[in-house]
Amino acid sequence: MQAANKLQKALRTGSGLTFGAWQMLPGSNQARTIARCGFDWVLVDTEHGNIDDSAMHEAVAAIAGCGVSPIVRIAANEGWMVKRALDSGAHGIIVPLLYTAEDAKRVVQSAKFPPEGTRGFGSPFPMEKFGGQTSAEYLQQANDSLVTIVQIETKEALENVDAIAKVPGIDVLFVGPFDLGNNIGHSIVDGTMHDELKEAIAKIHRAAKENEKSSGIYSTSGDQAREFADQGFNMVSVMTDMVALPAYMTSALTTARGSYVHSALNMGKGAMSGLAKMTGSQGS
């Protein structure tokens, strides 16, 4: 089971660096298209994405079928949401909006089967996302093979980050820069980060490293992702479908339209052509 979890395998061996993508639009074809781009993991976003429970199940299956780790971001720190995500076959979960170490402990309780936690067993769906395991094998190996990730994106979580990092069963501290900036009074409004936000991110990274946990962070471009990778983050998002799609299509359309001068010349040629036809018809 661990061998099939590409994200966990990478975090535990080698450089520990992984790159992922964010899926916000529903659809198994969308999920497969993203997964086939070469990422280690694809996050299925049920918090802010247009993805419901059914679409989550379909996306998880499609991503796992490509040999990539499907990770689900649930909408809130609710036990039933953790259960639904893991029962779909997700290789890990990201839980947003933590505040305290007690919140982190609650995540672990929801994500682990007894005796480590309180997760109920019974879903027939997750086994196939790990190479066709039996139910017994999944039950016996899941606690040590799934990745439990918590987002540090509130002022309270930042203040309690060391205590959160010490919670057994938490594998990754994941930075949500936009909400973190909002919560500490330094919103990202023009694409740049305030120095205090940069220090807050560095603090989270240090807490993870000092407590032998992995660190992750959301980014909006390949260049930014490279910067975070160079800083030592282990789980780095590279791109979101809802950023990539409009950006590329807008860029292509802008190229097609050409410059203002080019457009003006074309308009001028069209006008001259129309005038010539009009003059010719009058002359006949």
From TrEMBL:
GO MF annotation terms: aldehyde-lyase activity; metal ion binding
Domain HpcH/HpaI aldolase/citrate lyase positions: 30-241
Keywords: Lyase, Metal-binding
Superkingdom classification of source: Eukaryota
Cited SUPFAM superfamilies: Phosphoenolpyruvate/pyruvate domain (SSF51621)
GO cellular component, one term: cytoplasm
InterPro entries: Aldolase/citrate-lyase_domain (IPR005000), HpcH-HpaI_aldolase (IPR050251), Pyrv/PenolPyrv_kinase-like_dom (IPR015813), Pyrv_kinase-like_dom_sf (IPR040442)
Pfam families referenced in this protein's UniProt entry, alphabetically: HpcH_HpaI
Protein family: Belongs to the HpcH/HpaI aldolase family.
The protein's name: HpcH/HpaI aldolase/citrate lyase domain-containing protein
Organism: Letharia columbiana
